[in-house]
Amino acid sequence: MADNVQQLLQERTARFNTAVKLGQPDRVPFAPNVGGMPFNWFGVKYAETFQDPSRAAYAWLEFLKAYPLIDARAGFWACLPFSAKTKQLLGYKLLNFPGIDIEDDNVGFQFVEEEYMKATDYDAFLHNPGDFGLRKLLPQFAEAFKSLALLPNLDGTARGYGTVGEWCIAFTKDELWKSFEAFREAGKEHLKTVGIIRKFNEEALALGFPGMIQGTVTAPFDVVSDLLRGTVGTMKDMFRNGDKLLKLIDWAESYQAGVLRGLKANGATRVFFPLHKGIDPFMNDAQFRKFYWPSLDRLHKLCASMDLTCVDVLQHAWDSRLEIIADTAPGHMVYNCEQTDVVKAKKVMGKSACILGGMPLSTLLVGSPDDIRDQVKRVMQEAAPGGGFIMGVGGSIINCPRANFDVFYEAVEQYGKY
Amino acid sequence: MKDLIDAIVALNEDEALELTKSYLAKGKSGREVFDAYQTAMAEIGALFEKHEYFVPELIMSGELMQAASDIIKPAMAGSSASDEKKLCKALVVTVQGDIHDIGKNIAAMMMEIAGVEVKDIGVDVPADKIVAEVKAWQPDLLGLSGLLTLAYDPMKDVVDQLTKAGLRDKVKVLIGGGQIDENVRKYVGADVFATDAMVNVTYAKEQFGGK
């Protein structure tokens, strides 16, 4: 069995890697980002997975056993940031959980976007990002982080003996110690979740299924737009605070470059870039070339220089960007198309980037069996030939009728041959 | 006031607001200045439809309109824009299970600018509450928003409940969001689907422009 498992792991990894290197493997690789789709199929609700993360692992392992055509596990990481208990111990506000903040107990967690950093905060942030993060941002993110606002300004740590009094007196405040206690309890709880995820990875590998990615990096513009200034705030800044926005994006790039080097040092071979705000409707060509692309392009090139493969999710539609993004890191790019047609993407970018996708979520979820089969057939005929293509889905699946997925799976098996 | 209209369309905030003040000071009525803004906004909408302007330009035009309203309002006593006959009434909401509101908010803003009376009842709203609101407020248009695929079934549920309550013929249902297309429109039973904010405006004008 062990030999067989090793062989399976090698075959699946080689199949995926051959496509990444723009070659044609023995058959079309299959790597749908199934997110939390397996939960319902195996009697598990989303809310339950946050209460007991081992339930998520159970459903996913059952799913993998039933669908051996899958070449890379994609999406488990997106279901489980931390447990409901960790969230409650911290009073964490940036994510809403089903059954706790969202009435429906059978949907995934969702981000809560605000302008956590105001337009007037640029100078303070850029002066000392660490201090701003610690004393201004974190206190907004969780109840347990609130008291961090009581800490002295980090600029003062270089001040000499005066620091002693300032820091010691700050730590006489009970609120800080209550926060630290909450951190410790939440940390202990989160270690349990990390252990469950580690065990899941081991068990999935023992079944012969490699993971698709080993870490996640955020596009520098998205660091600003998702977390700091918000989507709308960042859009206004492109007009009103363009130079400062670019400086903040520079900071985010250097921070994300450090994340990438850390991932590489820990043995990662592929990293995930879920791209959010560079989509067609959110900016024009000039804005994209000025604000979104340069820093992301440099991170891609950094990955290539370290022999890391980037798996970028082109959320929503990126049709107008394909020529710009095509040649960023040849042989080290996988572009997962959501609503951009993979046939068009292959045509425009196929000489330098591997294309992943082909099944729009709307077709998979509410299309007829014929719609699903026809889509697979068309994509296999028009995007797969010559290699450099991986069959997948356009986005992360939240829920999907099993009968629909089975039609998809069988069609991939039938048409995904070279 | 071509210079004012041009400044608004070019999204030159400072220049547009200066010109607004200067025209009012020179004796133009609030109504006339407001009309210049309406003309400019229609032009911005057209540029959006031609894919020359995108969402950031819509956001900035909304900002500019808001800032201008604060300046124009005192000059419009007795003839405020809100006294105008509205194009139609639109109820907008993000359906149950989904907390995303950016798309909904932009769509609502563009409809308001185009003269639609908009009522926004928030995010993660259950179907029965939406149907009750349709019954009570009697909108011409119901805009159901949702970023994620999980919105499909709650949207369908709203339409099914409208049918059961005998209200389906009384309101046009428009769905919008990141994962919405014709397949989803059919599945939900909506009248039209939108993937950008101007579809709502165009549809409202088509349906209710002659009302």
Present the secondary structure layout.
The complex is a heterodimer of chains A (418) and B (211).
Chain A: H1 2-20, H2 37-41, H3 46-51, H4 53-66, H5 84-90, E1 95-96, E2 110-111, H6 122-127, H7 129-141, H8 162-170, H9 174-206, H10 220-228, H11 230-240, H12 242-265, E3 270-275, H13 285-305, E4 309-314, H14 322-325, E5 333-337, H15 342-349, E6 354-360, H16 361-366, H17 369-382, E7 389-394, H18 402-415
Parallel strand pairs in A: 3-4, 4-5, 5-6, 6-7
Antiparallel strand pairs in A: 1-2
Helix pairs in contact in A: 4-9, 5-9, 10-11, 10-12, 11-12, 12-13, 17-18
Chain B: H1 2-9, H2 13-25, H3 30-49, H4 55-72, E1 89-94, H5 102-113, E2 117-120, H6 127-137, E3 141-145, H7 152-164, E4 172-176, H8 182-188, E5 192-194, H9 197-208
Parallel strand pairs in B: 1-2, 1-3, 3-4, 4-5
Helix pairs in contact in B: 1-2, 1-3, 2-4, 3-4, 4-5, 5-9, 6-7
Description:
In chain A, strand 5, helix 15 and strand 6 form a beta-alpha-beta unit. In chain A, the strands form 2 sheets. A 5-stranded parallel β-sheet of chain A has the order 3-4-5-6-7. Chain A is built from 18 helices and 7 strands. Chain B has 9 helices and 5 strands; from the N terminus they run ααααβαβαβαβαβα. Chain B is 54% helix and 11% strand. Chain B has 211 residues and is α/β, with parallel strands linked by helices. At the A-B interface, helix 11 and helix 16 of A face helix 4 and helix 8 of B.
